[in-house]
Each structure stands twice: as C-alpha cells, then as structure tokens.
Write a structure and sequence with these properties.
The chain is an alpha+beta fold. It folds into two domains: about 110 residues, Urease, subunit C, domain 1; about 140 residues, no CATH class. Helix 3 packs across helix 4 and helix 5 packs antiparallel against helix 6. The termini are far apart.
C-alpha cells in the first residue's frame, strides 16, 4: 500500500542476538525498515499512519521455522511417521482438511512471533493459498517421488512446473536436512517454547535464508517485526532482557508485522479466524 507507514515505540529494541537499544523507536515505510534509534522520535515520524507499542514493549525481529509437517497437524503425531509416509498421507487427504491443519499451525506460530514457515508439500497451490490468507511468509518444501528435491521462494505469480519443483534452493535445504536447524515434525504443539533458545535462533536463520533474507533489524530491509507487551513484568532490568528471555517466558506477541502486512495486533490474529482453526492431534 503506497504511503503506508508505521511507527513503533518500545522500552527495548532488539536488533539481533546481542545488540539492543533502550527507549527506542523503529519507523517502517511501505513494508521496509527506514529508520530506528533511541528516543526522541523525529517529528516527521510522529504522524505515521499507525503508531504502535509504548512503555514496557519489547520490539524484536520475528522468528522463522524452516521445516514443518503442518499439513498433517490433524493426524496424531505418532501416526505421521517417516517422510515417505507423510507424503503419502498428504496425497490421500482432501484439500480442505490440509488447509485447516496448516491454518491451525500458522495461527499458533504467529501468536509466538513466527513470520516465516517452511511447509512439506506436494502441491504448491495449497501453501500459496494459505500464505495469501494468513499473510505469513511460507516456504514450500518441494516433494516428489518420496523425497525432497529443492526449495524456493514462491510467489503467486510464479507458474508451477512439476518437472522442476521449487527451483534453486537445494543447497540450503541440504544444509538444513543435516540438522543444523531442528525439524518441526510429529509434534502435538507448534509453540516455539518447545525449542531451546539456540535451536530457535538456528532455525530462524535457516528459514530467513530460504526466503532470501537475513535475520535481524537493519535499515532498508523488509520489516519482519514482533512487539511484546511486558506490562505484567516491568522491564526494570531492560538491559538484561534478550531474545532468549522472551523464549523462556513464552510471551505471546502483541503485534507481528511481515513487510506491509500486520498479521497479529492486540494479541489477536487479524486474518486467521476460529472458522479456519481446529484442534489437532
């Protein structure tokens, strides 16, 4: 949306794994981080279309999960089995059930600050439909003949070629499959709290790489931002708060932004409603 800008203020702005700014702001224009820094906010930014955050808010980069069996969330984890079995289950499951499972997983991950998700699939249109509805960035994991072939950033305008599934990103996929980042498969829950901090950091870096992005808050890069509300736990030791503390406290995000899209606001998912979410397992 042309001219759409957002100002976010917080008690703490986490730029990456180790760097932070106290009493900070971040300014986003047309889905891109244009500026950030310590208060006071430049006067021009105070007239932004949306002003978010405030006291006791922590602003941080959004997380990513590079590999999930999200299409099969409706099946008990013990029954999803090996990669080959999961592919067969996807093949024989109706489209509506697969979509409902995927929406359920995206809903849970979004509320914990995840904006980039890799999904095992044999049919790209399913994940593209879910990406369009949920506004989450989804990386399809291309599967054919019982094995993963490659991964690529897929846009709705890209024509699908079944003979060359998801081009280009084979190298990153192979790195991932060697367990540098953990798989989110055969789980009852997709909460990031189930991961150790270093595992989540590694997973996030891998997911961002598959999308052609680098994790962290940097000027002139797409805005992938989470805002946490710590009103129930005042940040009197703000300098000691980091991403790992956010993971341990299992805070649900107040706001989640991916580019020009506001996915979560006020702690509620703006695009995935209850009609699209069902119990799994």
């Amino acid at each position: 949306m042309e001219g759409y800008d957002i100002l976010i203020r917080g008690s703490l702005l986490l730029l990456d794994k180790t760097r932070f700014i106290k009493n900070a702001y971040i300014y986003i224009k047309n889905g891109v981080i244009e500026d950030y820094g310590e208060e006071p906010v430049p006067q021009d930014y105070e007239y932004a279309t949306l002003v978010l955050g405030g006291e006791n808010r922590v602003i941080a980069p959004a997380y990513g999960i590079p590999y999930t069996d999200a299409l099969l969330y409706h099946i008990h984890p013990a029954e999803r089995g090996t990669f080959e079995k999961r592919i067969k289950l996807i093949e024989k499951t109706d489209r509506e059930t697969l979509l409902q499972s995927l929406y359920t997983v995206l809903y849970e991950l979004s509320l914990h600050g995840v904006a980039v998700v890799g999904v095992e699939t044999i049919e790209p249109s399913i994940v593209l439909e879910a990406a369009k509805t949920s506004k989450v960035k989804i990386v399809p994991i291309g599967c054919k003949s019982g094995r993963c072939i490659a991964v690529s950033r897929i846009e709705p305008s890209v024509e699908y070629d079944e003979h060359r599934i998801y081009i280009d990103k084979l190298e990153e996929l192979m790195i991932y499959r060697n367990h540098i980042a953990p798989m989110f498969t055969k789980r009852f829950s997709y909460s990031v709290c189930a991961l150790k901090p270093l595992e989540l950091f590694s997973a996030t870096q891998t997911a961002y790489a598959l999308e052609g992005m680098k994790w962290g808050i940097t000027k002139n890069t797409p805005a992938m931002i989470t805002v946490y509300n710590f009103n129930d736990l005042p940040l009197y030791r703000a300098g000691l708060v980091d991403l790992f503390d956010l993971i341990r406290t299992c805070k649900r995000v107040e706001t989640l932004i991916a580019g020009q899209e506001i996915i979560v606001d006020g702690g509620e998912h703006l695009t995935i409603g209850k009609r699209l979410v069902k119990d799994g397992g």
